[in-house]
Amino acid sequence: MDIANSALGNVADISLLERENDMLRICFEGIYFPVEETLECITKHLHTTSQGKLDIIDLEAWTLTPHYINGKNTTSNTFPLTKHQQFP
């Protein structure tokens, strides 16, 4: 939680964060979410064998951008959301 709080800064609120075993869920609805800052902060605290994903859904652009985390590296792709979307 401290890792996410340091990335989210003043935006961080206990209602945004939910920890379930080894998973951290960040739920945010608003104008701006600090994606790059959050990924940077999280990855610097991970082991080289750590894996994860941060999904960003843009309801205005109607897109999904999954950010895949492998150790200290991240990759991402943006996909259009469709009525019958299969999430990667």
How many discrete structural domains? 1
Strand content: 25-35%
Binned, the helix content reads 10-25%
How many angstroms does the end-to-end distance come to? 26 Å
Poorly predicted tracts of residues:
none
Major sheet: 4 strands, antiparallel
Helix and strand string, N-terminal first? Answer: HEEHEEEE
Structural class: alpha+beta
Average pLDDT level: 79
| Overall body shape | globular
Total count of strands: 6
Rg is 13 Å
- Tally of contiguous helical segments: 2
What does this structure look like?
With about 90 residues, this protein is of the alpha+beta class. It has one domain (about 1-80). Helices cover about 20% and strands about 35% of the residues. It contains two helices and six strands, in the order αββαββββ. It has helices at about 1-10, 35-45, and strands spanning about 15-20, 25, 50-60, 65-70, 75, 80. Strands 3, 4, 5 and 6 form a four-stranded antiparallel β-sheet that branches. A two-stranded antiparallel ribbon has the order 1-2. A hairpin with a 2-residue loop joins strand 4 (about 65-70) and strand 5 (about 75). Helix 1 packs antiparallel against helix 2 (about 35-45). The chain is globular, with a radius of gyration of 13 Å. The model has no long low-confidence stretch (mean pLDDT about 80).
